[in-house]
Amino acid sequence: MKLISANWKMNMTPTQTRDYITKFLPLVKDVKDREILLCVPYTSLCVAYDLLKDTHIKLGAQNVYYEPKGAFTGEISVAMLKDLGVSYVIVGHSERRWIFGERDETINRKLLACLDGGLRPILCVGERLEEREAGLTFKVVETQIRLALSSLEDHTDMIDIAYEPVWAIGSGNPATPEDAQIVHKFIKDLLKSINKNYQGKTRVLYGGSVNPQNAGEFMKMPDIDGLLVGTASLDPEAFAKIVNSF
Ligand code: 13P
Fold it and tell me: What pLDDT digit, counting tens, does each position of 195-238 carry?
């Protein structure tokens, strides 16, 4: 099933979360042929869970720590998220890589913890502008995926991947659907080549300046299996339009 996910990033208080979900639910109540996911801040998980638990909308987090418990001030474990009804978690978002210095090795450990704990990770990959201009898009994406999946190669069906070119995030300048398609196909071919048990269950989402006007064009591409939406997902009507755009 296609996966359309919101990534609210550091937006929305719990009160705003309640208002958003109350507006959003009626707009998508009849949509059953695609998965809808809200990746909300940790502080909104409780209220979101209460409102979503009897619906078909899934709940996601935006980060997780790999240790199961202990003296890791400020961190949140897989078990804590699972207990709040979370089924997905974004791992390795470019903002975590470039603002918070998250390294490939950390991302790999987080993926391992998610798979161990039964949480489905959405691994984010994507090149920066200077890398794209230097013709390094495929090399960067391949390296990020290989390092993130190191020792997990035979379990790639348990994760989804978001291709989010860094230059397209929050810039109003998305990749063209055709350019994104080429990278998505490359990612699937790579997964096929590294996973002996490959079953094609990884969905490859596109993220970066998706809006209600362009969402349908991305979803026409054969290897674009969903969308990860930042800015436009902050408005329940705009996000509902994206969900309904194909
Ligand atoms: P924008 O939709 O704001 O470009 O953000 C994309 C993103 O980073 C989703 O994870």
Answer: 999 999 999 999 999 999 999 999 999 999 999 999 999 999 99
Ligand 1 atom, smallest distance to 233 CA: 2
Asked whether 123 lines ligand 1 (CB < 6 A), one says: no
Active site residue 102: no
pTM, entire model:
0.98
What is d(CA 92, CA 116) in angstroms, rounded to the nearest whole number?
17
Tell me if residue 184 is catalytic. Answer: no
Query: Atom of ligand 1 at shortest distance to CA of 90?
Result: 10
- pLDDT per position as a tens digit, 33-77: 999 999 999 999 999 999 999 999 999 999 999 999 999 999 999
First CA to last CA across the chain, in angstroms? 13
